Amino acid sequence: MEPYANHTQRQILNELRKAGGLQKVSVLAEVLDISGETVRRNVKRLVDMGAVEKSHGSVQLVDEHEQEEGNLQERLSLNESAKKRIAAYVATMIPNESSLFLDIGSTTAYIADALRSHRKLMIVTNSVYVAYRLSMRNDNRVFMAGGELRGEDGGVFGVDAMAFVANFNTDFAILSTAGVDAQNGFTLFDLEEAIFSRHIMEKSGTRIMACDSSKFEREGPVTIGDPALVDHLVTDAMPTENLKTALQNWGVEFHLTDQPRTPLSSF
Questions:
Q1: For residue 17, what are the CA distances in angstroms to 22, 23, 108, 187?
Q2: pLDDT of residue 205
Q3: What is the pTM of this model?
Q4: What Å distances lie between residue 190 and 100, 152, 195, 221, CA to CA?
Q5: What is the DSSP annotation of 197-255?
Q6: Could you read off the pLDDT of 189-205 as tens digits, one per residue?
Q7: What is the C-alpha to C-alpha distance for residues 243 and 229, in angstroms, rounded to an integer?
Q8: Which residues form the HTH deoR-type domain (predicted)?
Q9: Listed residue (174, 193, 171, 157) closest to 122, CA to CA
């Protein structure tokens, strides 16, 4: 369908792909330096062509609609370089002999890889990938939540998993998100993942959100929880002014991967 799109429509489709398939109309207008009306007019044509869907001020690629984030292997390949830089940065924030929760996100999977040289970690996770990468090395102890294993991402959820992690209180929780915007905070596409994230945030001392910049101004349908509970956000690029102000108001310390230990308040 793309050969029939005009130049602006192709730009919109390219920006949607860069953003992981979902973006707000206002952000598309800002990035492409065109008016919101121009975006809406071209989006309407793309909707008619069956290329995108529009809902509540956002635009989404149709071929990514049925499974918003895809399986873990697909997500690992998206923005791989940025995720690896974020992972390397987060690893420098975790001392040896720490205890930590790690969730099932693709960025979290790269963080598990970056932590493989650490020693005597106590890891609590619901991710088969994380457990596999960090177990049986450097005197680590890995505790894996039990329950039904999801085939698409190797994650474990449900009542048994929640009851298991309730036994632990850790130094850190390392979390991932599908989107972050000033109005809704950190969001996900999956309710079970959001409930699990809320639970481990309550059971940890320091909460670190690992989020590449493609998630900025992207909105999932499920809010993870009060964004003020997040202590640190590690990412690869500066957010928009609106989001930057929101992060400041929430008290989230902002870290750029190319500016080690730089809080948002210093900008």
A1: 8, 9, 21, 19
A2: 97
A3: 0.71
A4: 22, 13, 9, 8
A5: HHHHHHTEEEEEEE--GGGBT---SEE-S-GGG--EEEESS---HHHHHHHHHHTPEEE
A6: 888 889 999 999 999 99
A7: 16
A8: 6-61
A9: 171
Calculate the alpha carbon distances from 188 to 15, 154, 209, 251 in Å.
20, 17, 13, 21
Instruction: Using the structure block, give the residue that is written with the tokens 């792909």.
Output: 17
Are 23 and 33 a contacting pair, CB within 8 Å?
Answer: no
pLDDT tens by residue, 222-252: 899 999 999 999 999 999 999 999 999 999 9
- One-letter amino acid of 128: V
Estimate the crossing angle of helix 7-18 against helix 25-32, to 10 degrees: 110
The contacts found for 43-52 with CB under 8 angstroms, 24 or more apart, are 43/12, 45/5, 45/9, 46/5, 46/9, 46/12, 46/13, 49/1, 49/4, 49/5, 50/1, 51/1, 51/2, 51/5, 51/9, 51/13, 52/12, 52/13, 52/16
Fill in the amino acid letter for 244: K
For the chain, domains (ranges, CATH) are 2-64 (1.10.10.10), 72-266 (3.40.50.1360)
